[in-house]
Design brief:
The protein is of the alpha+beta class and 184 residues long. The chain is built from 7 helices and 6 strands, in the order H-H-H-H-H-H-E-E-E-E-E-E-H. A 6-stranded antiparallel beta sheet has the order 1-2-3-4-6-5. Strand 1 and strand 2 form a beta hairpin. Helix 2 packs across helix 4. The longest helix is centred in the first third of the chain and has 14 residues. The radius of gyration is 17 Å and the shape is globular.
Length: 184
């Protein structure tokens, strides 16, 4: 288990008085089918932050990298039917790894979280025609390819949508690098 997840689990217990296992039992008793339903329930009914609610939902569904037998299987499954986007992912990861040796690549069921001390970006083959790069740059004005996400529940403040590897340019890499720098 990565250090960030372990710290969150410890803080969850410290802040709520309940262990992760206690929260998983609470969520499973509700029989939610979807991750988002669990997150909403925990935030609305138990006033948990999005981060804690998201952690509990992933652990309850076994959809986080730490619950996977092989985290690379999570990545492979994301690109089933969207194989044409895998070169985008590969190119972005190659570029992002040059930022520093503290980049943590954390695959989930539907996306890959990129973290330093905190999450700075997400890579997701969102649809068959759109690859989404989520970027955490709170307070940054949208400009160029960078679009603001106007949702209180969003895990990133901005996004860049692309559909082809050739669209990866210095503007995109610079936005991701800025988020990486801010996350340190």
């Amino acid at each position: 288990m990565d250090k960030a997840t372990q710290t969150m689990i410890e803080n969850l217990h410290k802040n709520t008085g309940k262990t992760l296992e206690d929260w998983i039992k609470i969520v499973k008793k509700e029989n939610f089918a979807k991750h988002g339903e669990m997150v909403s329930f925990l935030k609305q009914s138990h006033q948990l932050t999005h981060g804690f609610a998201n952690l509990i939902a992933h652990k309850a569904k076994g959809s986080d990298a730490g619950s996977a037998t092989n985290p690379n299987d999570l990545i492979s499954n994301q690109y089933k039917g969207k194989e044409h986007f895998k070169p985008i992912y590969d190119q972005l990861i190659k570029e992002i790894k040059t930022f520093g040796n503290d980049v943590e690549i954390a695959p989930k069921n539907a996306y890959v979280s990129l973290r330093r001390k905190k999450q700075f970006a997400m890579l997701q083959p969102a649809t068959k025609t759109r690859f989404e790069i989520g970027i955490n740059l709170k307070g940054q004005q949208a400009q160029g390819k960078l679009e603001e996400i106007n949702s209180a529940n969003a895990m990133c403040s901005h996004k860049i949508n692309i559909s082809d590897r050739n669209e990866i340019d210095s503007e995109i890499i610079n936005w991701i690098k800025k988020a990486y720098d801010n996350a340190g």
